[in-house]
Amino acid sequence: MVFIKPGQVLTYDGHQSAAEDPGWALLFHPDLIRKSELGKTIDEYSFFSYEITEALHISESEKHSLNEILVKIEGEYHQNIDRHSQKLIVSNIELLLDYCTRYYDRQFYTRSNLNKDIVVKFEQLLKSYFENRDQYEKGIPTVSYCGDALFMSPKYLSDLLRRETGQNAKTHIDDFILNKAKNQLLNSNDSISQIAFSLGFEYSQHFSKLFKAKSGMSPSEYRNVN
User: What is the pTM of this model?
Assistant: First the structure.
């Protein structure tokens, strides 16, 4: 299964599958859910931002569960519309998305060994980034940069890291920078501005803000206390 969001474009080359079950597509206008609870939470389903190569692979039993929900949605759509129709359709769409969330969790779990390799590669990527002094040209590493370097979408990378380590990609990057900053604060006489620049920050205020948010004290306070 793949998921698309408003603004994304799909193309069809006209080729028809010879498979007995060619599959299905569920498309709905954003206005359908705009006033519902799903309209408030739809962005929490991060798989809408995954790449097509990060599709959800489902088992036969999982396919059966999803098809049952689809049949209910289709039935509501084709019968006479009443004041309950929209609510029931939206509720079933939400149920389908919740099942897909469960199945993605299962997929991350069953690929745990592969995911651990990706975690190691992610950590190595951050080390290489600073060893190669890329921060002077590109600034602090972003989740998008790391995702591109590891050939996956930023959302998929963050979800993978969160399931493997309990922290998303942005938190990992911030913690990595924080540890480097602590080492420099305690092992050099460089000014706060010099350290901020050496870590890829354009403005030292942004560095100080991140440092205090993560450590509970300013860079100067940390240096003086330790």
Answer: 0.82
